[in-house]
């Protein structure tokens, strides 16, 4: 089967969604309301294309002068003024449209494509073509003739419009692909989302994907449950047991955590979940690399805690074998965080990771009704990459009420589920640990006493400590 030639977009995440980029010579419609980022989208693609040696014509049917556009684009990192007039040619077709009509606009674009030997054409303001067309057939004719000429010249075309185009519009039937950029307000927050509604010549990741606009331009974060609907490598647990780093826990688990397993540690605030996670990282062998992805305590706070508990994490940090990454629980895109985690796992071949807390990471996805799918994709891909994971989940206890626990379906995604809690006594409380679940192996079923002190989290000697088959 012959593979179609592709044109890289230069937009982070977009080529992953389209499985390789734009099809060379094809025509694409990018629609979105004013402020959605269409112009940034197109210029980012255009400047990336010129950096690859391509020739671009950016034609505008809008009345906005180009020098004003350049003023705004100059604040973005991809903008390269040296390309203007060289690899990038900006053409104003507004006066031609107003004074001479659509046929003359077509002639102008044809001439410039040939003269500039363009390999990418951007036409901004397609809605003005619709407003100047007597009938939808004229709009269809304009798009068709432009597409035929551009394709014959080997030129890929991007058509930008701020009009809401319905499914019966002629533009949709003529183009090879359709992208929508939209902004949705939920409460006090707004979400930017990109959708792919049509893409000839290639499979693509369907649905909507969040994007953001920064000083670097547009970055798109594919929904990981769609991008990674199947892990990138076969799923299997490892053959060896890894030390948990928790004194007494290896014995209670029948030898430790199975390599590539995922463990969920649940419990109320103050039960020692974060200390448990730090112990897990401290238990790594000298040839292992690890990372702590936190949403509550900063790296400085965690290293201070490690020092007070004498866990010895300073040395692996200095050696580059352990990294701490912190994302405050403010406003963030969960797919961006998950994709960043997976990229770091691949790049540094991380054998141990901690997510503290999973609830903070998945809260936005919970609001979107995709928490289970999100966690499933993340856990499966981390396992496929050879990583052993410990994630925490905070239980909320209220007086005389049962704790608010993670959904049962979510717990089923983990190989081990451990409950860190307290035993209340006269004027005191002592930490406890109970293994709720261990997949594929024996474990201690009783509630075990624990302590938190020098050396971090550990189990004391009371309890039967006789592992039983599940």
Describe the structure.
The strands form four sheets. Strands 5-4-6-7-3-8-9-10-11 form a nine-stranded mixed beta sheet, sandwiched between helices. Strands 16-15-17-18-14-19-20-21-22 form a nine-stranded mixed beta sheet, with helices on both faces. The chain has a two-stranded antiparallel sheet with strand order 1-2. The chain contains 17 helices and 22 strands. The two termini are about 50 Å apart. The chain is an alpha/beta fold. Helix 5 packs parallel to helix 7. The C terminus is likely disordered. The radius of gyration is 28 Å and the shape is elongated. The protein folds into two domains: about 220 residues, Rossmann fold (3-Layer(aba) Sandwich); about 220 residues, P-loop containing nucleotide triphosphate hydrolases (Rossmann fold).
